[in-house]
Design goal:
- By secondary structure, the protein is an alpha/beta fold.
- It contains 26 helices and 16 strands.
- About 3% of the residues have low confidence.
- The chain folds into two domains: 225 residues, no CATH class; 376 residues, Cytosolic phospholipase A2 catalytic domain (3-Layer(aba) Sandwich).
- The chain has a five-stranded parallel β-sheet with strand order 8-5-4-15-16, with helices on both faces. A three-stranded antiparallel β-sheet has the order 9-14-12. It has a two-stranded antiparallel sheet with strand order 1-2.
């Protein structure tokens, strides 16, 4: 329909035919038909190869697609059959378009401008027919034929937009969440429809009108009424915001404050020591679990690694682990396993080694997000919900958390404060969730415990001002805004907020700050582990037999070195900017420096590094990082966890924790 709006007037002969819209569609059927066939081929291939589904189930999906496609075409055709009129139904009436000069489209038809050459066309019975001249028709009458087609197409487009708005009210219901591919097609349709409307109504002023529209949109969305900002669920935005600037952050890091928070953590470490010390009384190993981001692939890999490591050591892995940190999907899987361990220790009938938990953590999150973007976030979100006495708008951030809770049976539907006591009793390891602050690049350390010692290097506490504060303690910064009431799934979302896919979370500070994916600063959680070990190094030396840092990666380190040989001038100009896109490689080098620093701090005999890396099969090496993984990827992760290299890492863990 948008194509009709944009191009129909270039075929002025259509206006003289019966059912011009039907003939336009029929004669332009090759490309959409080819696309439909290509789509069917890709859908069948994806279902069989990627999803490992039986051919009968995949073919039934194809039947569903064709049925829906045919139904839609039939409904639209029926609508145009009863609304579109031929040229014989129009009688020229006196109006402002009697003069061809008064309308650009009339002028184009009369003067034969912008006409595309067509010699023949197909009739309704698929018979070729020569084009007849329309010079003897009044251009204004031809214009009326086109205008009624445009108007009827506009009605269909408006109905589609209204339908999208209605679907946006049903985002809470899984049955209405259409696949991501369909959401992308809907988004494309909206863009084309808007472009077609602007092009048709503004004519040669289309570019100017588009620029003016963008400027107006940018101006209007400066006001809160027309600009939706995602918030941290559970926090209070009605009280005055917390000051956020270097001086206020430095004020948190006084020696007295840091010592007080360290005392809290030392109590936890003492309880952990009692729990981890074996019958022989030997000093225990202290384990730090550092996991990389990487969407649902990382979440699934983290769950598999934790299940295998913990079961192989008969539960000693979790008993010896003090801190879990990381980014994005890795922390989603890690946090879910920690919750399962907590519930099991609290007496709930649950088997934390059950493979069903891996299936649950790997369930789709992408389709709900994409569906909500198209049906809700493109428009102004209007629906709201209540959390901890506060009201928030429903958007793709909300639906991400809802779908994640649905997949994990609402086991993580808790607040940060709900984990405070279990961590203090050393029943479960501490978790640091560390999203990146967009405004200044610092890290936000979200923990159930007071952790102001994580805000700056120890030297910055002993000698104030010698080292800049590079992190913020969430609980202290937002104490007045009910930081402990923050939903834990919101913290995980903040830690996994990839730009545009999920909305940046706006926090109640002055000036307002936004946070997004932890991977921009620390994709492996090693910064958190390094600082924690540095702060408590004396206690660790005296009370443990050493530290084990388990680094779990959902992708390999980059080994190949790209060549700049035979690059053109433009490529050479862009070459210096390439390093800005190698964030993961830069972090790898920085983390190696951190591990080298820990060897110096603890001594080479007191530090063990165990790396467990997912190595995909050759055909899945280039599979994308997403909030959706296929059945083939799940099967490949199961294969990889049984690999010889991973087995060596697991065996080393078992030896260290015996």
């Amino acid at each position: 329909m948008a194509k009709v709006e944009l191009s129909a007037y270039r075929f002025s002969f259509l206006a003289s035919l019966g059912s011009p819209f039907a003939k336009f569609v029929l004669n332009n059927l090759v490309v959409p038909l080819a696309f439909a066939l290509l789509f069917l081929f890709c859908q069948i291939r994806f279902g069989i190869w990627h999803e490992l589904r039986p051919i009968t189930a995949v073919l039934w999906d194809s039947v569903g697609f064709l049925t829906g496609f045919a139904t839609l075409v039939f409904a639209v055709a029926l609508y145009f059959q009863f609304t579109n009129k031929d040229i014989t139904n129009f009688q020229l009436k006196k109006g402002k378009y009697d003069d061809p000069e008064h309308h650009p489209v009339v002028k184009d038809i009369r003067l034969n401008r912008n006409q595309w050459r067509v010699d023949t066309y197909l009739t309704d019975s698929f018979r070729p027919r020569l084009i007849r001249s329309v010079a003897h028709y009044d251009a204004a009458v031809l214009l009326k034929v086109f205008r009624q087609n445009h108007f009827n197409a506009l009605i269909v487009q408006l109905f589609t937009l209204l339908l999208l708005l209605l679907l946006g009210a049903l985002i809470d219901r899984p049955a209405f969440r259409i696949p991501t591919g369909a959401s992308i097609f809907l988004l494309s349709s909206i863009v084309i429809a808007v472009a077609g409307a602007i092009s048709f109504w503004l004519g040669s002023w289309r570019l100017t009108g588009l620029v003016a529209l963008l400027i107006l949109l940018n101006f209007v969305t400066r006001f809160d009424l027309f600009h939706h900002k995602n918030k941290a669920y559970g926090m209070d935005y009605t009280v005055p915001p917390s000051p956020y600037h270097p001086d206020s952050l430095q004020a948190f890091c006084t020696q007295e404050a840091v010592v007080a928070d360290m005392a809290f953590t030392l109590e936890i470490l003492e309880k952990w020591k009692q729990k981890a010390t074996g019958p022989s009384g030997e000093k225990p190993k202290m384990v730090f679990f550092c996991v990389s981001g990487g969407g649902l692939k990382a979440a699934t890999w983290a769950m598999e690694v934790l299940q295998h490591a913990d079961s192989l050591t008969q539960g000693q892995f979790m008993a010896h682990t003090v801190l879990m940190s990381g980014a994005s999907g890795g922390m989603m899987g890690t946090s879910y396993y920690r919750e399962l361990a907590l519930r099991q220790q609290q007496g709930e009938a649950i088997d934390r080694y059950d493979q069903q938990h891996v299936a649950d953590i790997s369930k789709d999150l992408l389709n709900p997000i994409a569906f909500t973007i198209v049906t809700n976030d493109l428009f102004l979100p209007w629906a709201s919900f209540e959390q901890s006495g506060q009201r928030y708008k429903k958007d793709r951030g909300y639906i991400f958390e809802k779908a994640f809770n649905e997949n994990t049976h609402n086991r993580l539907d808790k607040t940060i404060g709900d984990y405070a006591q279990p961590e203090r009793d050393a029943i479960i390891p501490m978790v640091f969730v560390t999203p990146s602050i967009v405004n200044d690049g610092r890290r936000m350390v979200i923990s159930a415990q007071p952790v102001r010692y994580m805000m700056v290097e120890p030297a910055g506490v002993r000698q104030p001002g010698s080292v800049r504060v590079d992190a913020a303690d969430f609980r202290h910064l937002f104490a007045a805004q009910n930081a402990d009431s923050l939903r834990f799934t919101t913290a995980l979302r903040m830690n996994a907020t990839y730009p545009y896919v999920l909305p940046n979370v706006n926090l109640p500070s002055d000036p307002p700050i936004q946070v997004l994916d932890a991977g921009f600063r620390d994709n492996f959680g090693l910064k958190s582990a390094t600082r924690f070990i540095h702060v408590f190094k004396n206690w660790i030396r005296e009370n443990t037999s050493g530290v084990v840092v388990v680094v779990v990666r959902s992708f390999e380190r980059q080994q190949e070195i790209e060549s700049d040989k035979n690059r053109g001038v433009l490529e050479t100009l862009l070459n210096p900017l390439e390093i800005a896109f190698k964030v993961m490689s830069l972090q790898d080098y920085e983390h190696d420096n951190s591990l080298g620093f820990l060897y110096d701090v603890l001594g080479p005999d007191q530090l063990e590094i165990v790396r467990i890396t997912y190595q995909p099969s050759e055909e899945l090496k280039d599979s994308p990082i997403s909030f959706y993984i296929t059945n083939r990827e799940r099967a490949d992760i199961r294969r990889a966890i049984q690999s010889e290299e991973v087995g060596r890492g697991m065996e080393r863990l078992r030896e260290l924790l015996q």
